[in-house]
Amino acid sequence: MSNAKENAALAALDFVEDGMMLGLGSGSTAEIFLEHLGERVAGGLRVQGVPTSARTAQVATENGIPLADANKIERIHLTIDGADEVNPEFCLIKGGGACLLREKIIAHASERMVVIADDRKMVDVLGAFPLPIEVDPFGMALTAEKIYQALIKSGCEAGQTVLRQKKDGSGPLVTDGGHYILDSRCRKIPKPADTADLLSRIPGVMEHGLFIDLADVIVIGETDHAKVMELSRE
Ligand SMILES: O=C(CO)[C@H](O)[C@H](O)COP(=O)(O)O
To answer: Is 81 touching ligand 1 by the criterion CB < 6 Å?
Structure first.
């Protein structure tokens, strides 16, 4: 499995060109990519990166990748990020690492998004992975009820929603942006665009983990190679 992540991360380097401003994703696969990108930077590649999480900023710095301030840049040529699920239409579930809001801001601002994932992440229908939804702590129970209604209305087989906890059990996990994460069991999300649209209308929802029309390239790592799939939007 780790070979699969490694192969995906390595294949994504082919999309990086000298002089690029890169969006740097979060998660274990993205971190493997950062290690390899760091080697290229050490070898003379000139790029800058905009990190999507505090953790990614730290790993990028440790690997010698120059960082840019998201508030001071004019364009992002390419974002490389992981995913929790990918369907054949290049719709994604993201947010397993609780970075979905910043990941989506950066992906949306990017000219191109390359997703790197191991082969377990490819699914026919999204939804086995609980959908991460970043919410404002204020009125969270009211927001959770609206989320449930939106999931049912858009055809999901919605079940329990769980407030994500810190790994050390000391309380709810707080995102880099100061919000909470609700993980919603959907089982099946048959119409991701409809679900995304309804969730986006709920005021307490800061962002949801459905990434629609954002990924241009999916790189699926397998044990001995990587499969590259490109979407033409013309
Ligand atoms: O969305 C993410 C973080 O918010 C990650 O990209 C996603 O969870 C995949 O992580 P990994 O590469 O560790 O499987």
So the answer is: yes
Over the stretch 143-175, which tens digit does the pLDDT of each residue have?
A: 999 999 999 999 999 889 999 999 999 999 999
Number of domains in the chain: 2
- Summarised one tens digit per residue, pLDDT across range 16-32 is 999 999 999 999 999 99
Same domain, 161 and 217: no
Pocket lining: 37 vs ligand 1, CB cutoff 6 Å: no
Q: Are residues 26 and 117 in the same domain?
A: yes
Q: How far is CA 91 from CA 57, 63, 130, 228, in A?
A: 26, 30, 15, 16
Which atom of ligand 1 lies closest to the CA of 82?
A: 6
Read off the CATH number of the domain in which 187 is found.
3.30.70.260
Q: What is the pLDDT of residues 51-99, one digit of tens each?
A: 999 999 999 999 999 999 999 999 999 999 999 999 999 999 999 999 9
Among protein residues, the one with the nearest Cα to ligand 1's atom 7 is: 83
State whether 8 and 104 are in the same domain.
Answer: yes
Q: Are 177 and 101 in contact (CB under 8 A)?
A: yes
Separation of alpha carbons 14 and 167, rounded Å: 35
Domain that holds residue 101: 2-123+213-224
CATH code assigned at 102: 3.40.50.1360
DSSP, collapsed to helix, strand or coil, labels residue 150 as helix
Tell me if 10 is assigned to some domain. Answer: yes
| Ligand 1 atom with the shortest distance to the CA of 29 | 12
Q: What is the ipTM of this complex?
A: 0.98
Our answer on whether the CB atom of 99 is closer than 6 Å to any ligand 1 atom is yes
